[in-house]
Amino acid sequence: GLQTGATDARPYPFLVLSLIVAARAGLAWVDQGRIRYGLGWVAASAFAFAMHPLAAYALLAQLIFPVLRRRRGAPLRELAAVGSLGIVLVAPVARQVLMLQARQETLVLVDAPSTLDLAIALVPFQLLAAVAAALLISRSAVSRADAPRWSHAWLLAIPWTVLPALGLFVQSHATGSSVFVERYWLGASPGAALVVAMFVSRHCRSRVSLAAALGAFAIASTVALTPVDSRDWYSAVAVIDAADADAAIWTVTGYVESRNPEAFGDSAPNDYLNAPLLWHGAARPLESIPSNDDAGSRSIIDERVRLAEARGHPVVLIESREGAIRTEGAEYAEAALLSAGYERAKIDSALGVLMTTFGPPASG
Prior knowledge:
Number of helices: 15
Strand order of the largest sheet: 2-1-3-5-4
Distance between the termini: 47 Å
Mean pLDDT: 86
């Protein structure tokens, strides 16, 4: 069968799991007062932050734990120990956060969100479907006298559900660089599930209602998931290995940084942009090219074409693609090569990858 490396793996499942572990440890810390739970809370929180810095908005909701511990008489040295461990564990990620902040304008994937976008994100259809399922199945509602009391869990669940999307909304408008991407507020999903569970247990008598609500939430959430397409980079490496010794190997691996012409000012980012190919065994020199075809990107590609033409070298263009959709930069590079007299000598394709070999212009 097809084998692909994990270069397209995403950290979001680990982020969600670590948030759940952190919440469980935080609740135990508040209820039992043992510092080991506090240390476990801050360790799991730091891991979530390491998985993705934008997890900070979900973690804001969990700051209720040290507040409640202090209100219950926890000594300052206990809070200081927990806080100190958090600083130590988060410090290694600080450099990455500063790097991302410095180039945030190059990482914009979507337009600035509207108020309607925010409203839809704050009240996801999964939550509505779950509540509706519970109320439809429930035969009777719990009376106010019998209803479970509101606990500090509500102080966790509601902000946990709201703050991730709200934080991204505010950041997108405050910085002018939109980060309002659904997967970035995925950390809110455990909070939403907790809201559903507590709402149903408070207002519906039947345990079947709770099972229906959580089942509806799980099904709706699973349906909404969008898998990340795989790439058969091994096939691309095989084409690279079989290319003429003097061939220039141009690559567009699809990384978001390749949309920024400034990323091609020196050779430092080249290994990063070519990480999938290098990880899969490419041993020849690789030249990444921009994935956009704006003015800055075109000038870079035009210069690559000029050098290849002057040297009379063939060119192998390796590009990531979504189905039949190619990147603008790769299409522009192909058009520029054909205009310079190059001819398509061979076209290979594999899962998520297109590999085109161009023969150099005829001399004379």
